[in-house]
Design brief:
This protein is mostly helical. Helices cover 62% and strands 3% of the residues. A two-stranded antiparallel sheet has the order 1-2. Helix 6 runs antiparallel to helix 9.
Length: 175
């Protein structure tokens, strides 16, 4: 009896810690950033039920032109949430990613979605089209600013590994 009572107390304490941890995530971001995360969340939450599911992720990838995402890859993504991914969990995951692990790897992985052959490059014109038309759309002026520091070869391909380095460490030319 005592052990079950203790376990119940521990469960409530853990729930309290989890609640405090998730409520603090909102203080990690500016209000405008939270709004942007809400927009991203609603883009991914295809069925608008407040939870990101495997079907939501599959449809999101499909809309981005990536049709061959395996169920295993999607399940690995969902496991990061350690349960249903609602907006608070989504925001917490981003907070952990932004304040922890190597963001360069995350950016590289995003570019790799558009480089199925694994060449280390993406086409400048295709990338420009994505920047102008997808998610948080760039203005033509913003695209030109990006391309001003982007390593582009004579064939019009972007060396995205170098670009990721510039994004995460800064452009040496800025000094």
């Amino acid at each position: 009896m005592r052990a079950s009572r203790r376990a119940g107390t521990r469960g409530r304490a853990a729930a309290g810690r989890m609640q405090r941890r998730s409520s603090n995530v909102f203080s990690m971001f500016e209000q405008s950033q939270i709004q942007e995360f809400k927009e991203a969340f609603s883009c991914i939450d295809q069925n608008r039920d407040g939870i990101i599911t495997k079907a939501d992720l599959k449809e999101t990838y499909s809309q981005l032109g990536k049709m061959n995402v395996s169920d295993e890859e999607l399940e690995e993504m969902l496991k990061e949430g350690k349960g249903p991914i609602n907006f608070t969990v989504f925001l917490t995951l981003f907070g952990e990613k932004l304040n922890g692990t190597d963001p360069e790897e995350s950016i590289l992985n995003a570019f790799k979605l558009f480089d199925p052959a694994g060449t280390g490059t993406v086409n400048k014109d295709e990338f420009k089209q994505l920047l102008l038309t997808q998610a948080d759309k760039f203005s033509p002026e913003e695209v030109e600013q990006v391309f001003a520091v982007t390593p582009i070869d004579v064939s019009g391909n972007i060396d995205y590994k170098s670009l990721c380095y510039i994004i995460t460490h800064g452009d040496e030319k800025e000094d």
